[in-house]
Amino acid sequence: MPIFEYKCNHCEKEFEKLVFAGEENTISCPKCKSLEVVKKMSATSFMGASMGKCTTSSPKGFS
Ligand SMILES: [Zn+2]
Question: Which of 12, 19, 21, 62 has its CA 20 to 30 A from that of 6?
Fold first, then answer.
């Protein structure tokens, strides 16, 4: 499951959230409940996911 980092444009709070398919448009700020949140690229979760795939499917392409 992907965990994304979000930042609220309203109060500037940053938070992480586990997002399921179809829920991306319903993310709201836990502090002010604003829907004006932007997704940040999370380097840690992205690397973890891609490395997990690569080790099983295509180890050659990763080097
Ligand atoms: Zn907020």
Answer: 62
Distance 42 CA to ligand 1 centre (A): 19
In the chain, domain spans: 3-55
**16-51, pLDDT tens digit by residue?**
998 888 888 899 999 999 999 999 875 555 555 555
What is the 3 state secondary structure string of 4-35?
A: EEEEECCCCCEEEEECCCCCHHHCCCCCCCCC
Please check the confidence at residue 55 and state whether its pLDDT lies above 80.
no
- Ligand 1 centroid vs 27 CA: distance in angstroms? 11
Q: How far is the CA of 10 from the centre of ligand 1 (A)?
A: 5
Higher pLDDT, 59 or 15: 15
